[in-house]
Specification:
Layout lengths: L6 E4 L6 E5 L2 E5 L15 H24 L3 E13 L4 E13 L6 H10 L1 H8 L10
Antiparallel strand pairs: 1-2, 2-3, 4-5
Helix pairs in contact: 1-2
Length: 135
């Protein structure tokens, strides 16, 4: 079993948070005027949609490498539907545009990426989430 750990800390003089993993960072915030947000970074829904789309982008590359072909360009739009109170993500739809370097049909690569996309597969199967206070 592998474990990925990220860290988040508040950013002084704001109500935003800075998150990091290794040498990569991201700012997390609420829209300006919402619960003290200043619009300095992505909100949770945006991060979830980016995680889904970003994972699928990566998995297109993994699938192509596995199949011995090369992806030329990728464009993905993710629509994440939200509803309820508390707000929940209820559905996600990815629109995938992919062109292969040799001009071949990208559909087999897209189909393979669907089967290996960790974020999509995790969301579909449900993920256990524990939240606990530590001293």
């Amino acid at each position: 079993m592998a474990t990925v750990t990220v860290e988040l800390r508040n950013v002084g003089e704001t109500q935003a948070a800075m998150g990091w993993a290794g040498g990569h960072t991201i700012v997390v915030d609420r829209p300006e005027g919402k619960a003290g947000g200043m619009g300095l970074g992505f909100n949770g829904a945006q991060l979830l949609a980016l995680s889904l789309g970003g994972c699928f982008c990566n998995d297109l590359r993994y699938a192509a490498e596995e199949m011995g072909v090369t992806v030329d360009t990728i464009a993905i739009s993710v629509a994440l539907e939200l509803e309820g109170k508390p707000l929940l993500a209820t559905a996600a739809r990815l629109e995938v545009r992919c062109r292969m370097l040799d001009g071949s049909d990208p559909q087999p690569v897209i189909e393979r990426a669907k089967t290996i996309c960790m974020v999509a597969n995790s969301l579909r199967s449900g993920v256990s989430v524990g939240i606990e206070m530590v001293a």
